[in-house]
Amino acid sequence: MKPADNIQRFFKNAGINTNPEIDETVIERMLTAQKSQNSDSALIKPNIRRIIMTSPVTKLAAAAVIIIAIFLTFHFTGNPAMTNVAWGEVLKKTEQIPTVVFDMTAEIDQPEDRKLVLPSRNYVAGDRGARSDIFHDDKLSALKYMLPAKKVAYQIRVDQKKYWRIDMSDEEAAKGRDTNDPRTWLEMILSGDYTELGRSTINGVVVEGIECNRPDMVGKDGILRLWVDVETNLPVQIVVEMLGMEGGQMRQHKYVMENFEWNVELADSTFEPDIPDDYIMIDKNNFARLDGPRTHTFHDGSTVTLADGAKIQWLDSSGKRGFEHLAGAVDVTVAKGNGEFVVTTPYGEVKALGTRFSLELVDGKDSNTREQIKLLTVEVEEGSVQVSNAKGSSIVEASRKLVVEPDQKPYDYYQDENLPVRLRERIQSMLEALTAGDSAAWMANYNIDYMYKLIKGQVEYDPNLFGGSKADAERLQKMGSDINNPQELLERFIKMGGIKKASGEIYVRSVTLNENGDHAVARCIEYPDENHIIGHTPQWHYFDNDWWQIDD
């Protein structure tokens, strides 16, 4: 028996280059089920729930797909109608055996007299689980796990680096215990009339065989055949021949289960999926999901880098460029010349007009005010993006950033026409000084001449011009009593420590002017990481023929 404990080795050696002449939908059907006999070759995307709960008396095509999919659940009442004591012992004997390993080969007729051959290696251990390793062109193409005890099932497309994880109800898990178990077929074959085929030899083993037809399972012309070792009374081969819908036409299908190894010791690791980090999870609605940290390259060549905690998803079969941003920070580089690339978020839609931009969904409390803050930040490195929601739209150019809050128009203070141009320049200067930790640039936004006059008692305290309280102004006067000119005051401020470099990105949420249009208050956040949000409310006032910052 081929060792089954190191699936990672299979993944590393499983590069699949599918022959384009072979209908890929046949392989996909190993993980799917069609709705009815009248369905054409269009795929029903993987849905383990549907496969588990499909009745065994469904139409012919569904039966064919369920056989190839291996995820089988049959319902019987009473005991099988055994017509021969020896044949009756076959099922009884196998039911006492806890594990079995076997091979199954599917042969499906294709156009132009071709056949698609899909071998699989199958491991069954009751409640511990069942696993199928499905091969194509001698390379691992897909794996399926049914784990009733854990109430979960997996479908893994190795050739496409994607997988499905489906949680099961108690009822589905109970039904799943028979999944992939050849005894299910034994019970079906032995539950009614059959024809004895006499003796033969398979791989050097003397066997006796029977065959039957179960129209409700394999159609009018289908055949079920069982060969049993005359010495051990254990199955050696099970054959199913039937017609199934393929490419809109009825085609011949044949499935051979053989090389049974009964009562084999199977390690628990046999039923533990080892999914590489770069595989994409597809949800039950066929949405592909990615969690950070990781970098993913889309089929069009665009890339997205997800920070730790970031999450995105997209419709795996939509054919559209873009994704849905669910959480955290992502950096996007868009491949040019392939149509629009759109990112949807809880607060609006971001359409790439350029090539490189970053998004971050902020959700947390301001460490100062305890205000709950939820917003999207957009920062463009190259090109431009258009950010739109029900409240409005804004285009963000390179080296610019904006925020989008719930039920608010996308906001970029630099494009806020309500603000004087000089005020916008002062805000930009403040952000650049904080980002660089440049104390001299920071102090250049303050009216040092006014503060010197305030220290020397040459002007009265005015909260609109100073920003602090009167007590703050008095402390400033004591501190600067020995200062002789504005330049010395500036040097004193810088020597005392000036400002520290911002611990993270700074975003301006809004800027509000008073009725007179000479005083502005901004709402900003400093965002070091997902666990810290620091709120700031800097202010500016227009006096001495300019806009001056009066508070940080």
Kindly describe this structure.
This protein is α+β, with helices and mostly antiparallel strands and 552 residues long. It folds into 3 domains: 7-271, outer membrane lipoprotein receptor (LolB), chain A (Clam); 285-411, Jelly Rolls; 421-551, Nuclear Transport Factor 2, Chain: A, CATH 3.10.450. It has a 24-stranded mixed β-sheet that branches. Strands 25, 26, 27, 28 and 29 form a 5-stranded antiparallel β-sheet that branches. A hairpin with a 5-residue loop joins strand 2 (114-124) and strand 3 (130-136). Helix 11 (448-455) packs across helix 14 (486-495). The longest helix is centred in the last third of the chain and has 16 residues, at 421-436. Residues 1-27 and 29-85 have low confidence and may be disordered.
Note the main attributes of this structure.
552 residues; alpha+beta; outer membrane lipoprotein receptor (LolB), chain A; Jelly Rolls; Nuclear Transport Factor 2, Chain: A; 3 domains; 24-stranded mixed beta sheet; five-stranded antiparallel beta sheet; elongated; disordered N terminus
Q: What's this, in brief?
A:
The chain is of the alpha+beta class.
Topology:
Blueprint: H1 7-12, H2 24-29, H3 48-53, H4 60-69, H5 85-95, E1 100-110, E2 114-124, E3 130-136, E4 139-147, E5 152-157, E6 162-167, H6 170-175, H7 182-189, E7 195-202, E8 205-212, H8 215-218, E9 223-229, E10 235-246, E11 249-262, E12 280-282, E13 287-291, E14 294-297, E15 303-306, E16 311-315, E17 322-333, E18 341-345, E19 348-352, E20 356-365, E21 372-382, E22 384-389, E23 392-397, E24 401-404, H9 421-436, H10 439-443, H11 448-455, H12 463-466, H13 470-479, H14 486-495, E25 505-513, E26 519-529, E27 532-536, E28 539-543, E29 546-551
Parallel strand pairs: 6-12, 17-18
Antiparallel strand pairs: 1-2, 1-11, 2-3, 3-4, 4-5, 5-6, 7-8, 8-9, 9-10, 10-11, 12-13, 13-16, 14-15, 15-17, 16-17, 17-20, 18-19, 19-22, 20-21, 21-24, 22-23, 25-26, 26-27, 26-28, 28-29
